[in-house]
Amino acid sequence: APIQTYAVIALFTLGTMGLSNAAVMRLNYPTHMMFKSCKLIPVMIGSMLILGKRYNMYDVLACLCMTIGLIFFTLADSQVQPEFDLLGVWLVCCALVADAVIGNVQEKALKEYKPSNSEMILFSYSIGAVYLLVYDSIFGTMQEAFWLWWAYPIKSYVLTMIYAFAGYLGVNCVLNLVRHFGALIAVTVTTFRKTITIILSFIAFTKPFTFQYLWSGAIVAFGIYLNAYGQNQKSIENYTRSIYNRLLMKFRRRSGVYHSPPEQV
Hints:
The protein is mostly helical. It contains 11 helices and no strands.
C-alpha cells in the first residue's frame, strides 16, 4: 500500500488514542463509556461515505439496538451519574470520528492493495511513533517519560514489552476481521467484547446482579440477531421455509394416517 495510506492511518490512530485519553480527563467513567459504546454508528456512516457501502434496514436497526444495549449494559453497575463537559464531549466525539476513519481506510487498503497484516502494523505504528516523537519533543512531555523509565528501568521495559506484544496480537486479530468481514463487523466484535468482559467478571469476582443486565443484554442479543439476519436473509428464509415444509408434510402424513379408514380383509 502507498506510504500516504499508512501515514493517514497512523495519524488517526494517534489522534483517537490521544483524544480519548484527553476526554477521560474531563468526563467521568459512565459518560466516557456511553460515548465509546456508540462507536458502531460513526463506523457505519464512515463506510457509507468512504467505501460507498449501502446498508439495509436490518443493519441499521442492529446497529442502534447494539448501541443502546451496550450503553445500558456497561452502565448497569455504575453508581455515578453521567456528567457532560462540553470540551470532553467534543474530544470523545472527535475520537469516535477518528475511529471510524481508521477502520474504513484499513478496509479500503486491505481490499485494494492486499498488504499483509505485518506490513500494515509495521508502517502504521512506525509512522505513528515518529508523529508521537515530534509531538513530545515540541511540547516537552518526553522528559517525564524518560525519568519514569530511568527510575524503574526493568519494570518499565517488561511491562512495555508485554503491552506491545498483547497489542500486536489484538491488532492482528482486528485486521483479519477487517480483511474478511469489513470494518463494521470488526468494530461490532471489538465493541461486543465489553459485554463479554462484564459477563466474565461475574465469574471471576463477586458482583451484585441487577435486572438492567438482563434486559440490556437482551437488546444486544436482538441486535446481533438482526445483524445476522440482515447478512444472511435469503439463506435464513430458505432454511426456515424448508423446516416449515418438513413439519407440514409430517403433520399431513400423520393426519392422513389417523383419518384413513381401516382396510377390509
